Amino acid sequence: MKMENKIKIHLADDHQVLIDGILAVLKTNSDFEVVGFSLNGEGLVDRVVRNKADILIMDINMPEKDGIQVLREMNEAGFPCKVIILSSYDDAKLIKEVIKLGASGYLTKQCAGENIIDAITTVAYGNQYFSDTIKDKIFNIYTGNHNDHNQALNTEDLISSITTRELEILKLISQERSGKYISDSLNISVNTVETHRKNLMKKLNVKSSVGLVIFAAKHNLITN
Fold first, then answer.
1. Residue 175's domain is classified under what CATH number?
2. What share of the chain is helix, strand, coil (3-state, %, to 5)?
3. Which residues are recorded with the post-translational modification 4-aspartylphosphate (predicted)?
4. Distance between CA atoms of residues 79 and 124, nearest Å
């Protein structure tokens, strides 16, 4: 899909060879423009703002200031751009932490070459992106204990139980839309939106809206 404006990207990793590799991949897509790169986290947020980047692709383990510290600074700055984490680590606690701090995507370096373009495009359209190698791990983080009844239901049963209205709301939640936005878009009250959200969480056995997004992404329920 052709973008109306190029997606401006800033790369941050302490290995120049990896940055060069990503640059080579991104140059194959005319919708992308790399506006800068950094070899450490010091002053990264200021550079991203100065370069007017739409997306920051960032490693977690960097000198001077690591990715977690940068995400916290991004929070304080009101997130001037979206962040995709590119890391060698797939530890569940780390993944949960970066999602909590506002990252929109998470890729392992092993699959970056084949997934980076999809990740950028998905995040640019307001959705979250997680590589297949960690989707299951993330989903397990945000799912609660299944009760006896739900243990008897397979995934197809769960998906088929989602109503048309719930699916509409699920897609909008996955785009990080507010309750007010969803209310106005679907011409229903904010309270009704919240009721649907809670029903979805209970139905799909997840603990939060992030869990809903992961379930939807894992089972291909989200479309642009």
1. 3.40.50.2300
2. 55, 15, 35
3. 59
4. 14
